Amino acid sequence: xxxxxxxxxxxxxxxxxxxxxxxxxxxxxxxxxxxxxxxxxxxxxxxxxxxxxxxxxxxxxxxxxxxxxxxxxxxxxxxxxxxxxxxxxxxxxxxxxxxxxxxxxxxxxxxx
Amino acid sequence: xxxxxxxxxxxxxxxxxxxxxxxxxxxxxxxxxxxxxxxxxxxxxxxxxxxxxxxxxxxxxxxxxxxxxxxxxxxxxxxxxxxxxxxxxxxxxxxxxxxxxxxxxxxxxxxxxxxxxxxxxxxxxxxxxxxxxxxxxxxxxxxxxxxxxxxxxxxxxxxxxxxxxxxxxxxxxxxxxxxxxxxxxxxxxxxxxxxxxxxxxxxxxxxxxxxxxxxxxxxxxxxxxxxxxxxxxxxxxxxxxxxxxxxxxxxxxxxxxxxxxxxxxxxxxxxxxxxxxxxxxxxxxxxxxxxxxxxxxxxxxxxxxxxxxxxxxxxxxxxxxxxxxxxxxxxxxxxxxxxxxxxxxxxxxxxxxxxxxx
Lengths: 112, 358
Hints:
Chain A has 112 residues and is α+β, with helices and mostly antiparallel strands. Helix content of chain A is 16%, strand content 16%. In chain A, strand 2 (55-58) and strand 3 form a beta hairpin.
């Protein structure tokens, strides 16, 4: 034990000075869910497949909403999305004091 | 002196999770321990009625925060058995690798908690320093730190590709070196030995009769490890069941130290033999029938019972967790021990109360 204690007494601490030094995200980590309003066709498959029911899609109003506190970042929606409009980022959702859904509204569908 | 009852828990510095013990003491010696559980029951088993069998994998993983992956894996193996599915070989190897990573991080966590319980703060910090490095490897390969989220019915959801595997193995080798340094201290340091050797001796007969599982059973000399059943890729990756004969707290610590190092070897072997190919098969239809699945968690054998009736929801789901099986042994260990040894003895069975109460 003395050996380890002495070795580490002379080294830099492994802990970081958070929040002054933010943690470097690890590649491929499952973080917050990003949504792309431009490519989404509002089919609602993501809402059906979400195991916690965090996503709500209104097809007629081209509206997509997510309850960030319910999302478990499992990536089930990302795997199923036919248009690849969803992606998991490595950053994490910040703290919040209200339980609001985050809304995204797509542009009006161009007339055929 | 008259008998006194000392309450231990549910909030106690040595307990990571709430369990309550009424300790009947007489002159600082525990005469009897009466347990009571039920502080964190979440009703997860009943949730099978509301979540479909694919979604329930996420719930099964959340039964325990430490052996999360093996819970998910056991559940998926059960559903696959009901649906007569066979996960691809590569998926089985990946499950083995992640299962062993889960074991390493659980054992390192336990070593830290044990060091803390015996008052060895410095060693506690070092155990968790090593564990943190492993958590980074887990996050890099699965995307999650403790909730892996990679197991699904029919296979796995992520692959460790040929570009990521060498780096992962190299990092694991370096972590193994650090872990070896830590285990050497646990096995040879005199202050650790003073607190653990000869404390809480559980004979082979008692361990077997009380239905112990996992390191608690193996430390008493019974060679029983569910990995020997050959689930996932354990039928193709050789390993030796670690046992000790002393049956005391030191033996339980030594079994975990050896298993920890053995897990690195299992990962190496599995990575070397892992074949190319698909990582999941297509799942269609609904499960029907009944089955029992047994796997080896870091804390011991877990038993899953699943009953399905051909609909998308399972009809009934039941889990027998290792800690539940080890509580009778804990009560036996506590009889006649010194009051000061109670924290050490409670920790030697590696209690996981969240699992037990689900």
